[in-house]
Amino acid sequence: MSSDNVKTLYATFDTRQAADLAIEHLVQQYGIDRTDVFVEAKGADNTAGTEPSGGDVLNREGSGTRNDAALEGQLQVSVDLALEDIAKAQAAFEEAGARDVSSR
Q: Where are the beta strands (DSSP E) in the chain?
């Protein structure tokens, strides 16, 4: 694809679980190649989001919830895609609860 026909779509998520769900939708439901999808901390700190979710919730070593998750900020998922796939990717992000969806 030429760079004129490719955009990068970005979205932020509060939990790793929501970011993973967006990635799953992009790849499995909408056919976006997994090698074109990226997830990273939005800021400089290591993070699993801003609130516990998924494996960050239950304490497998005892009762109650875990309190050791790296909750240092939002996660950003980005995807490089053809212009005709933008609507599909936006739908996947919205279905997973994305915030601040933008493109470049």
A: 6-13, 37-41, 75-82, 99-103
